[in-house]
Amino acid sequence: RLEKNPHLLSTDKDAVAAGAMSLASAITRYKSEISDYGRTKAFTLDMLKKFDIAQKPISDLKRTDYADHALRRRDGYRNENYELKPIEPSTVLHGFQGRESVLEHADLRWGVEIDVNEYEKAVRGLRKSRVISESKERDRLPTSKELQDLTTYSYIDFHLKNYSNTPLYLIMWLDIYTGRRLGELPRLEIQ
Question: Helices 116-128 & 63-75, crossing angle to 10 degrees?
């Protein structure tokens, strides 16, 4: 254990704390240092902190930990914090991508010894067994009725509810007519 965790011999409190840092603590620290990510990633990271894997020290995580977590997420997750329904392989992958950001940051920025090989082998095995995968390409466009329903709902939401401050019906049609790629419209700035 000492060979893999030399920080345990250190008298430097920060080195000991970083080496014994749980995944949940690493996520909290990562979010305090990095702010350039979207709401989905923030939600995914916050959710990840409530899973059992988040209580383990990041320097001790093995491919079996990653694989067990992925299988539990795919099949429906249950612990004292959550009782979740089964999810698609692309959603499991999204969680892994968020976790990878935290682990890379801990390794490169904080100097925590992360066994990246274990993580990569876990991901490779999960991809081969189709537990994680890219999302399926959409093969249809919304119908006219679906577009009208979305427009009506978001119009009512914007004009008749007190808490809505974004005219989604206008943004939706601007997106459709301009043909912008996913994520381009939210980055536009009014000058």
Answer: 40
For each successive 10 residues of the chain (191 residues), what is the average pLDDT?
56 54 95 88 93 94 96 92 89 93 94 92 95 85 93 89 78 86 75 74
pTM of the model: 0.67
Please state, as a whole number, how many other Cβ atoms lie within 10 Å of the Cβ of residue 129: 13
For the chain, what percentages of helix, strand and coil (3-state, to nearest 5) are there?
Answer: 60, 0, 35
Integer Cα distance of 53 and 56 in angstroms: 6
Looking at residue 78, the DSSP 8-state letter turns out to be B
H helix intervals, 80-129: 89-108, 116-128
Give me the amino acid identity at 135: S
Q: Name 77's Cβ contacts closer than 8 Å, sequence gap at least 6.
A: 51, 83, 84
**Sign of the Cα pseudo-torsion (100, 106, 107, 109, in order):** positive
